[in-house]
Amino acid sequence: MATLSDTPSQDDTPSRSASPSAVLRAQGVSLGFDGTTILQGVDLEVQPREFVAVVGASGVGKSTLLRALAGLIAPREGQVEIPAGNSDDTRAWSMVFQAPRLFPWRRVRANVELGLEGLALSRAQRRERALEPLALVGLDGYAERWPHTLSGGQQQRIGIARALAVRPRVLFMDEPFSALDAITRRRLQTELVDLRRRSEAAIVFVTHDIEEAVLLADRVLVLGGGKDDGPAGMVDVIDVALPKEERREHAGFAECVQGIEGLIGTSAADESS
């Protein structure tokens, strides 16, 4: 495992060494379709409240890996372990997609309540529980609005609130800001940094944007290789040892980004040679 900065983290997020049991574990995971392996040899442990970003070139299998970690597809080899929810009114994991996927016929609070349906909660409890994550994303005053009256950034925050409402142990995020304009994307990145301090969930975050990965993550899982010369695989797992506050302005930020870009570029060059 590499570290692209020797600057210690300055926040109070629990370190991996202080957390005895992982909330998510993948061992020797290989993935593929129709008899073809596209990604192999993935080993990963995610600790409570840790943020792990997954990066790599297009087509390397980032989103496929995310779905396997969530148990939505079965690995061809290896295993994925996700613990159960803490109780019968929580879920082990939830997911935020590239698009918010809101139901236009349901008001904002009803959309957030959707993930709570099927849990051991009364209707009144669901309505109350939905307000908690809405407050976390700064939209508690929008509970009775219709989705079409909200901006794209606000709609995506509703999607995040819906995922948080079930109090997941692991929150999977599949390029959640990729469809947003640059200004909105940057604002939501900043809000996600703040949200992490108030949420108990670990986060696994897929992105094409290396700057975004370095900005947000405790560690970055770099995938590389693949296509014509065989399946892709893990290139490295990078510790981003930079303070989370004003990380983008830190002197080591660009160095971290360039280091990961170099890993991805080297991997692509190796596969094509």
UniProtKB/TrEMBL annotation:
Top-level taxonomic group: Bacteria
Ranges where the ABC transporter domain occurs: 24-250
CDD domains: ABC_NrtD_SsuB_transporters
SMART domains listed in its UniProt record: AAA
Positions of the UniProt region annotated as Disordered: 1-21
Pfam name, any one: ABC_tran
Amino acid composition bias (Polar residues), ranges on this chain: 1-20
UniProt KW keywords: ATP-binding, Nucleotide-binding, Transport
Any one Gene Ontology molecular-function term assigned to this protein's record: ATP hydrolysis activity
Stretches of the chain forming a coiled coil according to its record: none
PANTHER family named in the record: ALIPHATIC SULFONATES IMPORT ATP-BINDING PROTEIN SSUB, TAURINE IMPORT ATP-BINDING PROTEIN-RELATED
Family: Belongs to the ABC transporter superfamily.
Name of the featured protein: NitT/TauT family transport system ATP-binding protein
